[in-house]
C-alpha cells in the first residue's frame, strides 16, 4: 500500500492577557511546545506590557517548534488580545512600552470624547461597545497629555501587528483586530477618519488594513536564523484571539451562537452585516 502523506503542520502563536502559547498543529492535533505567563508590569503609577519579554518568549517557542518538527511546517500565524497598541517612529522602531488597557490614564476620558462627538455618532461610526479601555480613549489621553511619543509617532500598530512587524517586517493592521480599538468603521472597512479627526488624533498614523488570510511575507533573516525556521511565510489569521476562536467553531452553517471564555466571557453570533444600532 502507498505510504500515507504526512499531514501539514502549522505554527500558531496564541497570546492572551494572562498567558501565551506556541502551538504546532494539524487539522487533527495540537502540540503546545511552549507556554509562558503574561501580565502587566507596574512602573511608578502606570501599567505597561513587557513587550520585549513577550517577543523573546515567542522566539523561544518558535525555536522549540522547529527543533521538534524540523520539516513539514507550512506557515506561522499569530493572535493576541485586542485594544492595545504600539507607536513606531519613522524608522519603524518602537516608541516606548505599550500601555496595558487597565492603566488609569483613560479614567474620565470617554466623557471628553462624548463632549465632542455624541455617543450615538461614535457607535454609528464604529459599532463597538463603550469601555474606557478602548484604544480611542487611550489615544485621546495621550493627545490631552501632549505625550511626546504621539507627536513623534509615524505608525500605529495593534499588538499582533507589532509582533508581525518584528517577525516579517510588515506594516499593516489586520482587519479583525483593527475593529477592536473603536477607531474603525465596519461599514467602509477602513479607519473611522471623521471620528479620529474630531479627536485631533493624527490621521497619518493609521496604516493599511489587510484581510485575514493575507500572506504578510517571509520571516526576516535574523528571525529565521535564530529560530531555525528558514524562510517561512507569516500569515495573518484573525489576529484578534476571539476572532480566531470563533473561526474555529466546527459549525456546519451560520445558525449557531458561541461563548468564548478567556480573561472575560463573551457571547455572540455571526451575522452578515455589522449591527450599528
Number of strands: 16
* End-to-end separation: 60 Å
Q: Give the strand content.
A: 25-35%
Q: What structural category do the secondary elements indicate?
A: alpha+beta
Main sheet summary: 6 strands, mixed
SSE order in H/E notation?
Answer: EEEEEHEEHHHHEHEHEEHEEHEHEE
Gross geometry: globular
Strand order of the largest sheet: 3-2-1-6-14-13
What's the overall average pLDDT, rounded?
Answer: 94
pLDDT < 50 stretches:
none
Supply Rg: 19 Å
Q: DSSP helix count?
A: 10
Helix content: 25-40%
Would you mind describing this structure in some detail?
This protein is of the alpha+beta class. The protein has 10 helices and 16 strands. The strands form 6 sheets. Strands 3-2-1-6-14-13 form a 6-stranded mixed β-sheet, covered by helices on one side. A two-stranded antiparallel ribbon has the order 4-5.
Question: Keyphrases for this structure?
Answer:
277 residues; 6-stranded mixed beta sheet; 10 helices
Write the layout of secondary structure elements.
Layout: E1 9-15, E2 19-25, E3 30-37, E4 40-43, E5 46-49, H1 51-68, E6 73-79, E7 85-88, H2 109-114, H3 119-126, H4 135-144, H5 148-152, E8 155-158, H6 159-168, E9 173-174, H7 175-178, E10 184-185, E11 190-191, H8 193-198, E12 209-210, E13 215-218, H9 221-227, E14 233-235, H10 241-247, E15 257-261, E16 265-269
Question: What's this model, at a glance?
Answer:
By secondary structure, the protein is an alpha+beta fold.
